[in-house]
Amino acid sequence: MNKKRYVIKPRIKVVVMLFIFVYLATIFVKQEFILREQNKETCKLETQIEQVREENSDLERQIEYTQSESYIERMAREKLGWVREGEKVFIEEKN
How far apart are CA 61 and CA 38, in angstroms? Predict the structure, then answer.
């Protein structure tokens, strides 16, 4: 028995190769857009992280200051009217 061999015409080969090339190029372009978006998002998130770190650092300094004696004394003077021994207090009269 003779086996039939299928012969693909050169024109069909070119069309199939062209289709494969276009498909791969499309996938490559889509991946490139996705990578660029992810890089933009990464940069944005790194900037936000840096801002939060700075804010956190400021809050830690504030916490340290509020626990110092000078802050406690200042608040006692301003809010509670605390006066040291020997100090004179002057009170303004309102009109």
Answer: 34
